[in-house]
Each structure stands twice: as structure tokens, then as C-alpha cells.
Amino acid sequence: MRRLPFLFSSLLCLATVLQAQDEPLSLRLRWLPEHTYTQETTTETTSGIKITGKGEEQKMKVKQTTEIKVTGAGTGEKLARVTFVNLSGEVMLNGKKETFDSANLKDANPMIQSSVGKSVGKTFVLAYGADDQFLEVRNSSSMAETPDDGPNLVRIAEAKQVADLYRRSLEMGLPKGAVKPGDRWTAQETVNFPSAGTMNIELRAKLESVVSYEGRQHAKVTFEGEMKRTEETAGSRAVTIGDGSRVFGQVLFDVERGTVTFGAFLADIQLEISGKKIPVRQQVTTKLVGFTKA
After folding, report:
1. Domain match, 106 and 191 both
2. Each residue of 169-201: pLDDT tens digit?
3. Which of 23, 33, 125, 169 could form a disulfide with 72 if both were Cys (CB 3.0 to 4.6 A apart)?
4. pLDDT at residue number 270
């Protein structure tokens, strides 16, 4: 008899999921004011650059903790303040594995200290309207500051590009309108990468199904696509992303909360540095590990 309540609750959950399979779903990000979202992102990068005398591929693994605090404004806007809280990981430098944690960088390689120190603690604001449409990036100047001097115009522009790139990564693969399981759509966007210039990205996506994940109803979206340089980028920069670069991924979107709970992405990138082609594979996994009300 003790099993009956569990059986009934399981059947109710299954019925809810099956019912959702026939209903159009909005998969637009919906930030909830006075809530804090905490993400953990693990990025593993393998490049074709060989370490001198070792014959090994260059590898790097980085874990990043990001906090997003959402507040409401009197105008009805929603302000999502993004802060890069922590970075840790390992990387091969000069044939030696170097580990690091931004919580304690005193013993880290000076190159790592400089790179990580420029990222941790930096913050910016993503502004959204009452209808959850993105408006603009705000207050990104802190990302343009260095320990030696304040921000300059070039760094301010690059900081806005980083903030916008992060915002686009949150929405990757999601449809503009409501969709049902089995529906397919194509997204075409132009994205400005701070180091590699402007790229045209075409994604082909599909809502595979509605599933139960961690006890909550989620839309499972898969996608694949290609990245191509714009005409103004080709031949004009020392570092570019070459044609033939591809991206694959899937996300689990919490239908009730209006946010991505889990995302896994794989990118095969043809990096070009001063005309030399270097294959790079990047695997990115992002998980929502915290969702609290202020």
C-alpha cells in the first residue's frame, strides 16, 4: 500500500509530460525578478598545436561559475546582472600541466594570473523588456578595466562584444516562436567574436520531445549548424575562424521557469592564425546548479 502514493504521483507526472507533447511551447528565456541563477560551465578545448618535442595535442579544461542576479525596474524592465564568480582548471604551458583556481592565484603561472585575473569578478547587465525581449547590454565597463589603468574605447567595445556573445550563448538553439515536439526551425545570425571577427552562423534545430528532468518538465532541443566568415572578416584579421567550422548541441529548457537547465555543445573549429590552419575541438557543458529567491 505504501507504494500507491508513489505510483499515483509517477502516473500524474507522466500524464503531464504526455499532455505537453501536444501543446505549443514558448521556449523564450523568461527571467524572474528577485531571483538568482547560478551556472557551472565546463569547457574542454583540444587544439592541433603540437607541444615542442612532445608530439601531444594542446589541451585545456576550464570550469567557470557564473551568477546572474535579476531585479525589476520601475519601467517594467528586467535587469540580469551577470558576474563571473570563479574560474578553475588546468592547461598545458611549455610542456607542463598547470592547474589554477581564481580563489588562490598566488602560486599560479604569471600568464594564468594575468588572464584569469582579468575575468573573475567582472560584471555586466543584460536588460530585457517586460515582454522578455532583449534590449541592450549595460554597465560593461568594468570588464574593460585593467590593474594598470581604466577602460579605453577599444576595450569597452570588446567588453560589450563579450557580454553580447554570452547572452547569445544562453539562447543558442532556442526558437523565436512557440513550437510542438517534432517541429524544426532554422536560425541565421551574425555574431561578432572579439578576437576572430564577424561570423555568419546558421543553426538547424528541432524540438525532440518533452521530458522529465530532475522532476521538472523540460523541452529537449537538438541542433547543428555551420559558421562562415563574413566578407569583411576574410583576409582582414590575423586570427579568424575558417569556413567549415561546425557546431552541434542539445539543451534542456525548463518550461515553467523559462530557463535552460542543461546544455551540451560540441564545436569543431577551423582556426586560422596568420594563414595557418589549426583544428580546434571544444566541448562545453553548462548546468544550472542554483536557483534561489532573494
Report:
1. no
2. 899 999 999 999 999 999 888 877 766 777 888
3. 33
4. 85
Confirm if 209 and 217 have CB atoms less than 8 A apart. no
Task: Determine the Cα angle at 278 with ends 276 and 280, to 5°.
Answer: 160
Among 145-154, 212-221, 234-243, the range scoring the smallest mean pLDDT is 145-154
Q: Is residue 25 part of a domain?
A: no
Cell numbers found for residue 75: 519601467
Of 48, 46, 49, 86, the closest CA to residue 66 belongs to 86
Same domain, 154 and 191: no
Q: Write out the residue range of the structural domain in which residue 43 sits.
A: 32-171
Q: Considering just the CA atoms, what is the radius of gyration of the chain in Å?
A: 21
Beta-carbon contacts of residue 215 (< 8 Å; ≥ 6 apart)? 13
- Is 66 found in the same domain as 158? yes
Q: Are residues 196 and 214 in the same domain?
A: yes
Single out the residue of 179, 214, 198 nearest to residue 287, CA to CA: 214
pTM over 0.90: no
